[in-house]
Amino acid sequence: MKTHTSETQATVTPALALQFLREGNARFVNNLRMSRDLLQQANATRDGQWPFATIVSCIDSRTSAELIFDQGLGDIFSVRIAGNVINTDIIGSLEFACHVAGSKLIVVLGHTSCGAIKGACDHVELGSLTELLSKIQPAVYEESRTPDPAQRNSKNIAFVENVADLNVRRSVRSIVNRSYILEHMIGAGKVGIIGGKHDLASGEVTFFDDTWLHDNTSLQFIAG
């Protein structure tokens, strides 16, 4: 399969970009990866790149976005940080990916059994990691399905996964609320954003439909 060009990127809508990722993940789950000439793709993109989507995911070694969405060189931007948290540098990278390089979709991708989430659940403090985990703490405090304090730690798998889901949703809101550029592009229908979660055991990605923002109407449901 050939890599994307400026012409093919221009034909991609946010919804179509999401469809491409759904189809790619289905191929990954069923071990039906598309045949690609990676050297040809490297040569084809040496003078420019036109990725159709941008994935914000965790640094976990099992969550390579290119693999789990079955994409080749030049197809997607991959922004990786522990716990898929959002900071100013991540926002700037997303603004570059969408406003400058033409990406049509942002996906905030969490995953099961996330070490950063577990660390936040246990209130771990360790060097500079302390500051990173503090960005996940609001999701820990927001989790309301586990009232027993003794169960609010990384040993409780259900609690960890609830926090991971909340963290993804908070990250989607943070991107929209902190970037006027991206908010405007989403409102105009030029870019979409959605959260999702990768199951490490099955490989399947579940997209959170309640976080799908792609026009002014959908933005109204995430204000604040």
From TrEMBL:
InterPro entries: Carbonic_anhydrase (IPR001765), Carbonic_anhydrase_sf (IPR036874). PANTHER family: CARBONIC ANHYDRASE (PTHR11002), CARBONIC ANHYDRASE 2 (PTHR11002:SF79). Belongs to the beta-class carbonic anhydrase family. Pfam families: Pro_CA. It comes from Aromatoleum toluvorans. This is Carbonic anhydrase. It comes from the Bacteria. CDD domains: beta_CA_cladeC.
